[in-house]
Design a protein that fits this description.
12 helices; 8-stranded mixed beta sheet; Arc Repressor Mutant, subunit A; D-Amino Acid Oxidase, Chain A, domain 2; 3 domains; 22 strands
């Protein structure tokens, strides 16, 4: 079959568009080279829904940040995604920073950000008493928020599947050809026709339009068929996640004044009750380097102390690094490729990309319509999904659910209080988990202080049972990350 749209890249940008296309009577496919969605920048980031005070006025970043921010509350409610509008505090560490705060206030006001306010030192410490006493003022951005970033991405993709879309995992695109109406290969991709995508294993997929949403690999995908128009390099950032004992240290997301390297080291609660500290910023050329380093983590610890010296890093339960897609220009790259008819590039989507994703998806539909794609609204579009979070239920609701399905009465992950019923649900969903970390990203077993030390073997057993495969065939995360290789001893006859 020839799809109407093929989206390359199942991060938050591609998944948001995939879900948006589900509103119309067409056939879309979401293509991902890894074995699950949300395994790139959408998995490892600050999970902040930015207010929009710092992108340059008139830029695509400013427009889609503010528009996307306003879409988040209702969208996360519809998709049963954890979200909290906790607000942001951008603090002045010195008198010079007060000038920067005024500039951010004026810039944010021009961008259309609601509720911005500059407060003095006394007001800062009334709001956040655990910050350094030397902080001399702050910009308050009440529309800032925090979200479960991989839950959000997965929910978007799943909703796209529910509304008729297809997802192709383990499908790395290595070649793109433009074909004519009769299937002949066109030497000039600017001519009208359709696309044939060839994967690394030889399989193919055909589509009338292609959307390049491949994150840090979007420059590579664009050059598979078009003339080089941009370059994307990775910017690595390292983080600490701290135990929930540290989760109430601050209520709002605490930022430094942004610099040319980004928004700086932040301290923020997470939607799950932990504390997040980071990132640093390291520019490089290795798009596969997700390693952490003593140097990077030491920088995060030292720099975060300028915001608060009350973070107890002995409560660290996890470190991780994420890669951001840094374009060679200063703005998002959102364009119909001028040299390839039917190719839409959504590239270089650095911060605030997570916030901007829902708005970018809507704009991408407009661009595809301008390129000649027909859009007819589907009256059967289902905008919602539900997900059981047992720990958040009332005692009466827990009792009723456990009586109806006893698996919800069996706690598997003691740290996060995740039940067998929730794990089974995460596997049986339309875009269900097939790996240990896939379950973790969907319903959080293994996300607590023991990091799966106790619940990991139980989750593995449930995965094996539900998928009907031997435990030895299951992986922790990506292809090849096997957990079990075989038995150490065979039973005697």
């Amino acid at each position: 079959m020839v799809y109407d749209v093929a989206i390359i890249g199942a991060g938050v940008i591609g998944s948001a568009l995939f879900r948006e296309l589900g509103k119309y009577c067409l056939k879309a496919v979401l293509i991902e080279k890894e074995d699950d969605v949300a395994l790139g920048s959408s998995r490892a980031n600050s999970a902040i829904v930015h207010a929009g005070y710092d992108p340059p006025t008139g830029s695509l970043m400013a427009r889609f940040n503010v528009e996307g921010n306003r879409l988040y509350p209702s969208l996360c409610n519809d998709l049963s995604v954890p979200f909290r509008q906790n607000g942001s505090l951008i603090v002045a560490l010195c008198e010079e920073d007060l000038v920067s705060l005024r500039n951010l206030y004026e810039n944010g006001t021009k961008n259309g950000v609601d509720g911005l306010e500059i407060i003095d030192s006394q007001a800062v410490h009334q709001l956040e008493p655990n910050l350094q006493p030397t902080i001399c003022g702050a910009l308050v951005a009440p529309t800032g928020g925090i979200v479960g970033s991989y839950e959000f991405t997965t929910a978007l993709a799943e909703n796209g599947v529910v509304n008729g879309g297809d997802v192709m995992l383990n499908s790395e695109v290595v070649r793109i050809d433009k074909l004519g109406k009769n299937g002949e290969k066109l030497a000039d991709p600017s001519k009208e026709g359709f696309f044939r995508l060839t994967f690394s294993d030889g399989r193919t997929c055909e589509a009338r339009f292609v959307v390049n949403a491949a994150g840090i690999y979007s420059d590579f995908v664009q050059q598979l068929i078009g003339k080089q128009r941009f370059k994307v390099t990775p910017r690595k950032g390292e983080y600490y996640i701290l135990d929930k004992r540290q989760g109430s240290l601050v209520d709002r997301t605490i930022f430094m004044c942004p610099s040319k390297l980004g928004k700086g080291v932040l301290i923020s609660p997470t939607v799950h009750g932990n504390l997040l500290v980071g990132p640093d910023a390291q520019d490089g050329l290795d798009k596969t380097d997700f390693s952490t380093s003593k140097q990077g983590l030491d920088f995060v610890r030292k720099t975060s102390a300028l915001l608060s010296d009350k973070v107890d890093f002995r409560d660290s339960i996890r470190n991780f690094a994420g890669l951001r897609a840094l374009p060679d220009g200063k703005d998002f790259i959102i364009e119909l490729d001028p040299d390839v008819a039917g190719l839409l590039n959504l590239a270089g989507i650095k911060s605030p990309g997570l916030t901007s994703a829902p708005a970018i998806a809507k704009y991408a539909v407009e661009l595809l319509a301008n390129a000649g794609m027909d859009f007819k609204e589907d009256p059967n579009f289902n905008p919602t999904r539900t997900q059981t979070r047992f720990a958040e239920l009332s005692e009466k609701e827990k009792e009723e659910l456990s009586r109806k399905d006893p698996s919800f009465g069996r706690v598997i992950c003691r740290c996060e209080q995740i039940t067998e019923g929730e794990i089974v649900e995460s596997i049986r969903r339309p875009l269900g988990a097939t790996t240990l970390d896939g379950v973790k990203r969907r319903c959080r077993p293994g996300s607590g202080r023991c990091q799966g030390g106790f619940c990991g073997p139980r989750v593995l057993e449930i995965l094996s049972r539900e998928l009907g495969v031997p435990k030895e065939s299951l992986v922790k995360d990506k292809i090849g990350s096997y957990i079990l290789l075989g038995k150490t001893k065979e039973p005697r006859d």
